[in-house]
Amino acid sequence: MTPVRKALSLTGAGILICTLAACGGDDGGKSGNANPDNSNAPSDAGTSASWILGTTDPVVSIDPAGAYDIGSWNLQYSIFEQLLVIPAGGDQPEADAAESCDYDDPQTVTCKLRADNKFSNGNALTSSDVKFSFERNIKIADPNGASSLLGSLTESKGDAAPTLVDGAIETPDDTTVVFHLTKPDQTFVKVLTTAAASIVDEETFPADKLMDSAKVIGSGPYTLSDYKVEQQAALTANTEYTGTRSGKANQVIVKLYKEPSALRSDIGTSKVDVAWRTLSAVDLADLGKTDGLSVLNGDGSEFRYWVFNTATATGKQLPVRQAIASIIDRAEITQDVYDGTTTPAYSLVPPGFAGQKESFKEVYGDAPDLDAAKKFLSDAGVKTPVKLNLGVPPDKYGDAAVQETNTFADQLKASGLFDVTVVSDPYEEYKENYREGAYDLYMLGWYPDFLDADNYLSPFLRDGGFFANGYSNDEVNSLLDDELGATDEAARADAFGKIQDITAKDVPVLPSWNGKNSAVATSQMDGVEETLDPTYIFRIWDVTKKQ
């Protein structure tokens, strides 16, 4: 998931706009409100007490065509259905709006929909709505959206924006959707599990512009009954829902915080039952000692890394990049900055993913090697100390990221080989600055769009990646094509390994650490720990509060 994940504002600790009993409505499901009198409601819907989730993840848009960030996506997963879904703790797609999605061949995927699908306003959900949703996302191509994930259905001509290929999506009947891909793509069925593939009602959503977030409707386990920008979203169990993800609580409030300190203050009070993303390692340690609270940890796939601009005078020098890769002390960063809540990363691909290989450890070792760094530079005749601008956005990743940057800078300075200047810029400026070459080396973070090693390689390495850092390697591009098209898992793993080896040698990107998926919950909450997995999907529908 791209690091365009972003900052909103909130006054104080956040104000609960309406009481848990009063939020919502009874207008027959119009404008996203549930209809409590609907006789088709699942028997287990809304049986748990209402509860409150607090998060510092901002919400850019609840319209699926307008967001590519973890805060927005997690609301969308509750409000909309996708064709497929990843269950808690799983890594393979399962049925959601579709009963199945299968490859007919490497470039054709056929999905069969459930016949009883319907939106919260009562409209039937058919293959036509699926086609409309994909076409709409690609057509709008919102800069904050995730239409790029649907690239296997599009083509580009010159500098023009990608457009849907004629005939790319066919709907032979109301319950069948056939996707014709422009290239073999073994990740496409996993793309169908992402919020980018959320299904919207073609009778409700405009085809060429975003819908007001407060007015969205879907077919998921919850409806949006109230939304206050930068403050909160109120979700009410969708009584029209016919799938397998029925909301166990009648209502859930998602409170949006700007400052982690405010979220920390509220967890455990009547204001917040679960705090998920993002509290510091110090906060988590302290809260773990608080009566009535539990710090819960699951396997994560959060990834922090450094990007070289290979077009700057410093960044373009391979020996300089290799020397820095020899000096970084990941153990110091993970222990001193993150109190052991993260683990050193020696690959762009997190541990546990098929095809992962710790190529950076093989090339540079698992501890700093000053002699190796000196040799890289001296053999190439590079004069020292090398001037280096190190970039960080303090408002994006928090105080710990600033501490991490300063620790890394101190490591480089202590080597005597680098003259480092740390440059801190607000994230909105930072995004523009790194593309314009303001930093030789700069920090970014990543969460997966879907659980596949390709999602940690293609976005970073193909022709400069989404951050356009100037790196391009024809062999890497070819191997990326190979792994996308390979139907044999051993062949994919072999290609992944070769890509990671080349990346370690070329060092266009330098991995730093992998993080856990953590939350803090009161003793009344159940189902929180089970959803803390590498997808970073917080499955609101599975969480309950004891009455």
From TrEMBL:
PROSITE patterns assigned: PROKAR_LIPOPROTEIN (PS51257)
Superkingdom assignment: Bacteria
Record domain Solute-binding protein family: where: 93-465
Location in the cell: Cell envelope
Major location (coarse): other
Keywords linked to the UniProt accession: Signal, Transport
Endpoints of the signal sequence: 1-24
UniProt similarity note: Belongs to the bacterial solute-binding protein 5 family.
Protein name as it appears in the record: ABC transporter substrate-binding protein
Species name: Nocardioides plantarum
